[in-house]
Specification:
This protein is mostly helical and 210 residues long. It contains seven helices and two strands, in the order ββααααααα. The protein has helices spanning 24-43, 54-65, 94-111, 118-134, 141-155, 168-182, 187-198; strands at 14-17, 20-23. It has a two-stranded antiparallel ribbon with strand order 1-2. α1 (24-43) crosses α2 (54-65). The relative contact order is 0.14.
């Protein structure tokens, strides 16, 4: 499922960093600065020559967290996690899952046309849902996933759509779609991608997928 591992109700998350033990609220603006820097690099084609696979995802994680949590930035997680009701793969399986994910992404993108059709929607739904389902990092999975999606949109010359749910209703719908993705049912996420594109007038709308 999306984002980071959820703490118990009412708990505040703390992370040990090179700047001391910070609450997640304190850490968020530091991460935002680094995410913005990577987004600017994406817009400048800094990663255009790299395969859209696991090495690039590791690089994104290191770039947003390497100076803050050097002990585990840019490395696959080594701990068991649970995200909501979803149980991601055990840590010893993460490298294999991410290798396969990267190879699958390269193949899917090689066949993507950039046109708003079911193949493109499924490619983007898979890119988002499968990466979040694997949950490859100890933290910041949501941020890295959104950066990877930004890179894919840029490569495919697609609009920079909003990737974050706007309100509680959208968030509930999004999490339900990610739960379906955990079971490899991409249709709900495909519909969300369709809705994301429809906010741009130059992208034709389609009927919702059944």
């Amino acid at each position: 499922m999306a984002g980071e591992t959820t703490p118990p109700d009412g708990a505040t998350r703390f992370i040990e960093t090179t700047r001391g033990v910070l609450s997640y609220t304190q850490l968020a603006p530091l991460l935002a600065e680094r995410v913005l820097a990577v987004e600017r690099s994406i817009a400048a084609d800094a990663y255009a020559a790299q395969r859209p696979a696991s090495d690039l995802i590791l690089q994104f994680h290191f770039q947003i967290a390497g100076d803050l949590v050097p002990a585990w930035a840019g490395r696959w997680r080594t701990n068991e996690v649970r995200v909501g009701r979803h149980q991601p793969p055990p840590p010893h399986r993460v490298p294999v899952f991410m290798r396969d994910y990267g190879e699958d992404m390269c193949l899917r993108l090689a066949n993507a046309t950039g046109h708003l059709d079911e193949l493109l929607l499924e490619t983007l739904a898979f890119a988002e849902g499968r990466l979040l389902s694997i949950h490859p990092f100890a933290d910041f999975n949501g941020r890295v996933t959104r950066l990877f999606l930004r890179e894919l949109l840029h490569r495919l010359q697609l609009p920079p759509v909003d990737l974050v749910p706007m309100d509680a209703a959208d968030e509930k719908h999004y999490f339900a779609a990610l739960q379906s993705g955990d079971l490899t049912d991409w249709k709900p996420l495909m519909n969300i991608w369709q809705q994301r594109f429809e906010q741009y007038s130059d992208v034709p709308s389609r009927e919702p997928l059944e």
